[in-house]
Design goal:
The chain is α/β, with parallel strands linked by helices and about 375 residues long. The chain has two domains: about 1-180 and about 360-370, Rossmann fold, CATH 3.40.50; about 185-355, Glycogen Phosphorylase B (Rossmann fold, 3-Layer(aba) Sandwich), CATH 3.40.50. About 35% of the residues lie in helices and about 15% in strands. It is built from twelve helices and 13 strands. The protein has helices at about 15-30, 70-80, 130-150, 160-170, 220-230, 245-250, 270-275, 290-295, 310-315, 325-340, 340-355, 360-370; strands at about 1-5, 35-40, 65, 95, 110-115, 150-155, 175, 210-215, 235-240, 260, 280, 300-305, 320. It has a seven-stranded parallel β-sheet with strand order 3-2-1-4-5-6-7, sandwiched between helices. Strands 10-9-8-11-12-13 form a six-stranded parallel β-sheet, sandwiched between helices. α1 (about 15-30) crosses α12, α8 (about 290-295) packs across α11 (about 340-355) and α10 (about 325-340) packs across α11 (about 340-355). It starts with a strand and ends with a helix.
């Protein structure tokens, strides 16, 4: 079977959840016997010899190049539904989109992954803002095109599948839940990498710390995180990895125990997680929630929001809280820090739960969906 992956290479340069998903799914597909994988990308991302430019993590794959920049090509496809993608990969059996992209095809089948329907949600605290509503209209048009045209749909969680059915009237029989995987390096983290070129210590603080991944943003529930930070024990620090919004950067400066690390390299993240007292993940909306699984793999207990997919993903291996109840959040954090028995129990549950999330399983599920029985 020949599979051409329509890949948004720019999302793989400093990958977060979706970028990691793209990289790992393509690589795992390529390991399978009987599966021939190449990429469909913009010609602007190819070198003079027609190869993917070396800065991209998937540069070792062969590629077909369409003539426009990525965003221009995707806009043309959405508006005109033309030209068909198989113009550049006529021998492919499937065109695979590991992120939400509408791709017109004629004879070649397509399979598309939906990671979340965040912008279509109408009961979030900011759902009535003009920005969210405008983005929701655009996202709705795009996802309805995808659902109507794709031969198969993939969802990263049972929660996302449920929302696809409810918000897009998608046929549940057409949707396969594949999940996400966790890299092996999280199970055996190196505790000595540098976090930045200027930081050579094994850890960024000698004091115990709680880790937040994803930055301080409205979606990640920054206000609840800062509320919790103000009530942490005096010796407990709070480290934030990821890009933060300007208003919350200003508020974080008022909390001396909050340290904004910015983007943390993939090689340093397992160590940062493994040495933390817990992962605090109070997001309002996640289609999956990769940091929670990665932390569990690294042997770090997780305290997660009761919203969206997070309770489904962590199950009984994490402590689930109402993020708006700061007292409840602090009680869970301090109990993990002070109660050795509880901490060890959650670590063991977390590691066991994390082992259920592998890229091999994800690709198995995908191939089951697109391979004739």
């Amino acid at each position: 079977m020949k599979i051409t992956a329509l890949t948004q290479l720019r999302r793989t340069l400093t990958p977060t959840g979706v970028g990691v998903h793209m990289i790992e799914m393509v690589r795992e597909l390529a390991r399978r016997d009987g599966i021939d994988v190449d990429l469909l990308v913009s010609r602007t991302q190819l070198d003079a010899a027609g190869n993917i430019q070396s800065q991209y993590p998937l540069s070792d794959f062969s590629a077909h190049g369409y003539p426009l920049a990525q965003r221009s090509m995707e806009a043309l496809w959405r508006i005109c539904r033309y030209p068909p993608a198989e113009r550049w990969c006529p021998d492919s059996d499937w065109i695979y989109c590991p992120a939400e992209t509408f791709v017109p095809t004629r004879k070649t089948k397509s399979v598309v992954t939906i990671h979340d329907l965040y912008f279509m949600e109408k009961d979030l605290p900011w759902s009535n803002t003009p920005e969210h509503q405008a983005a929701g209209k655009r996202w709705s048009r795009r996802c309805r095109q995808i659902v109507a045209h794709a031969d198969q749909l993939l969802a990263v969680s049972a929660f996302t599948k449920e929302r696809m059915v409810q918000l897009l009237d998608a046929d549940p029989k057409k949707i396969t839940v594949i999940g996400n995987g966790v890299s092996d390096v999280y199970f055996t983290p190196d505790l000595t990498p540098d976090l930045t070129p200027d930081l050579t210590a094994k850890r960024p603080t000698e004091q115990p710390y709680v880790l937040v991944v994803g930055g301080l943003t409205e979606r990640k529930n920054a206000q609840a995180i800062l509320n919790a930070a103000r009530q942490l024990p005096p010796d407990m620090q709070l480290l934030v990895a990821g890009k933060s919004s300007v208003p919350y950067i200003e508020l974080a400066r008022e909390c001396p125990n909050v340290h904004l690390l910015g983007y943390v390299q993939d090689t340093a993240m397992p160590s940062l997680m493994a040495q933390s007292a817990c992962l605090l993940f109070l997001s309002r909306y996640e289609g999956f929630g990769m940091p929670a699984v990665e932390a569990m793999a690294a042997g770090t207990p997780v305290v997660v929001s009761h919203h969206a997919a997070l309770p489904h993903v962590v199950g009984n291996a994490g402590l689930i809280v109402d993020p708006d109840q700061a007292g409840e959040v602090i009680e869970r954090i301090t109990s993990l820090y002070s109660n050795t028995t509880l901490r060890e129990k959650m670590i063991q549950r977390g590691r066991q739960r994390a082992r259920e999330f592998t890229w091999k399983h994800c690709v198995d599920q995908m191939l089951n969906a697109i391979t004739p029985s």
